[in-house]
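Example with several molecule types.
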Amino acid sequence: MESRRHKGAGGQAVPAPDREALRSQVREKYREVAVDPHRTFHFQTGRPLASRLGYEADAVDSLPDPAVESFAGVGNPFSLRRLAPGERVVDVGSGAGFDSFIAAGQVGDQGRVLGVDMTAEMLDKSRRTASALGLDHVEFSEGYAESLPTEDGWADAVISNGVINLCADKRAVFLEIHRVLRPGGVLQFADIANGNPVPDEALRDVDLWTG
Amino acid sequence: MLEEIGFVDIRIGDAIDTFAGTVGEEKARAYAVYGYAFLARRQ
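Resulting structure tokens for the full complex:
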């Protein structure tokens, strides 16, 4: 198992948590968000969250509850740039599909959206919603951020929301995103960052990575 | 990291208080965790 090392608050290199252990915990956490979105999590979900993060109200209101209720993003990846009509987009960690559906509206039916997620329950939910909405230009595939199921240079844009911070090897994720983007393509994502140093013991604790 | 990998024109949006009013707010405050939008172009 490849081990990435991070700098802890003490400046010492600290091994990142086990990638598979982290994936397992993240998958379990977001399985819960998919099947029971109205329970209490350490983060907000759904329409109230989308409103607070500044998503366009009309776009959110047009989506059915299954498309929004399990939304657990940390920011608005469309706030610095709106996708252009006709663009091909990969959504890394698409969850129940909220950002993919927002993207679908922006790129229109001449564009393409590929949502990628590793959680079976989220994939199921997003696929059912896409089918119910009749969105032929949106597809959801199982996969990992470090190994995206598409060829080199396919995407005009890559979006993601609160996912990369949950990956043990962020460099590998950014390299993979670079691979699937065409030259000149755009990465627009939202994620969290900490302003205060994280103690070494916290970096080793998988539970704290997933909240 | 983004520049090293081959991204340019990097922009970062304003901080968003993602965890305000949530169960995770205390931990977020302890580490000054905020949400941000990022934009970058692949060379």
